[in-house]
Amino acid sequence: MQLWFILSCYWCPGCVIMLNQAKKTPISTEWLPGYVEMKRALELYGYLFSISSRPQFVNSESGGRGPPKNIRSWIKFIDACVCMRSGQHIFSLSDAEELVEIIICLCLDCQLQGLLMLLYQCMQSVISYFTDEEWGNSCENIAKSLASRVPADYNCLQTVECISVSGARFNHLRSTLSYNILLICFDNKVTNEEGILSTLIAINLKDKKWDLLKMYIYLVLTQNWLLHNPILEERPMIYEMWGVYLQNCSCHITSTDLRPYASKVRTKASYLLYGTTKK
């Protein structure tokens, strides 16, 4: 059975290039848009992704709801381009890293909720664009850049959770992003894993002035950082500190505590603690 990739040209509506992958038929093209043109295409539609972790479309000509015209084609075009790496290098490593950031930002836009499946497929393709040798450094670069852009509030959890957990690279990115956000949450005053967990353990949860929404954010970030990272198996001390932190969240917040998020922190920590004690 022959497999075909259909590349819808964003710049020439109606123009379709078909690639016979089974026979690997070569394609001769006089010009393909580069990364600069692809970014420019989003900017022309008023899409601002460089100033916020939650970008949005501005100056929409249609005035209606939903994504601008051709954004679906733009996503498909990016998806097709990264799948062609074996034949032609269209993106540099830094371009591909920024593309991952852009796709994640697009996933956060309410106007594009109807395109989430397409965006997730594109995200998977872009992440697969990196070789195994490249992925480690690129994952760190992507995570640091995203972490520097997301606000240290509930929105950062949405950024983390829009990354799938369906593969090793997704898990790696989700874990690394959560870790880097935690570092920023503590104003980079801690520099390693033990420092983060020691700081979390030292928090006095019985202090009624403590904002438990902030603790809930820390708890979810720490969960995503550790449970998608082999560090728990490689470093028993981290595993023990994780258990102490969960026990504090579970036991130091009583059922009569009426602070917002008290119940959510206690319940989530108890559930995670039960999972760790069974191992």
Automatic annotation (TrEMBL):
<keyword id="KW-0732">Signal</keyword>
<feature type="signal peptide">
    <location>
        <begin position="1"/>
        <end position="22"/>
    </location>
</feature>
<protein>
    <submittedName>
        <fullName>Uncharacterized protein LOC8275232 isoform X1</fullName>
    </submittedName>
</protein>
